[in-house]
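Researcher: Good morning. I'm working through a list of sequences from a screen, and I'd like to move beyond sequence-only analysis. For each chain I'm collecting a predicted structure so we can compare shapes side by side. This is the next one on the list. No need for commentary yet; just the structure.
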Amino acid sequence: MSDTASLKTPQPLRAVSAVEWRISDMPVDYREAEAFMEARAAKIAAGDAPEMVWLLEHPPLYTAGTSAKEEDLLMPDRFPVYKTGRGGQFTYHGPGQRVGYVMLDLNKRGRDLRAFVTQLETWLIKTLAEFNVVGETRPDRVGVWVRRPTKGPGREDKIAAIGVRVRKWVTFHGISLNVEPDLDHFSGIVPCGIQQHGVTSLVDLGLPVTYADVDAALSRQFTEVFERT
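Model: Good morning. Structure tokens for this chain:
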């Protein structure tokens, strides 16, 4: 389902410093979202628009980042597949997953892409901590992970993904956090090229969390990570 109206007039969540926050209440078409980000990033680079964080969800789909391997698309006919310019490999987006597109001007924040990705990781980890979930990063794996010892020795599941693109030092794309997606939908791909670990969500961990809960936590922790540090 395409939410064209929310693309043109997304409802404001709240302002954080000079960053505009927006939320779309209905699933947004992936190509429309990309076009919106491309245009907004260009305006930010030109000084014609403020930075933005856009929270939304997509209908079920797979995206292939710049490092995606064809063999990692296990079910090519299951959902639409979109090639995209963000970094990373294959990932899934769909209902129950909160996507956060982050359009920030690194010209003003320090031209350090590695530091920016670390901030995204920290933002997610601090958000998860509000729900008493311990999120962790791994040097050899992208994203945020939770340990699942009850499912086997050394078992870890991915709960959040990160994939970014930068043009003229303005970022777009961003993060996705699994709130309550259908986890079986991830079986059509090898998520981020990693086979030996699984995927989880806040609800899968036994937490009856809503988008409203997650959005509020993301907003609070964005302030802590991106504005006060």
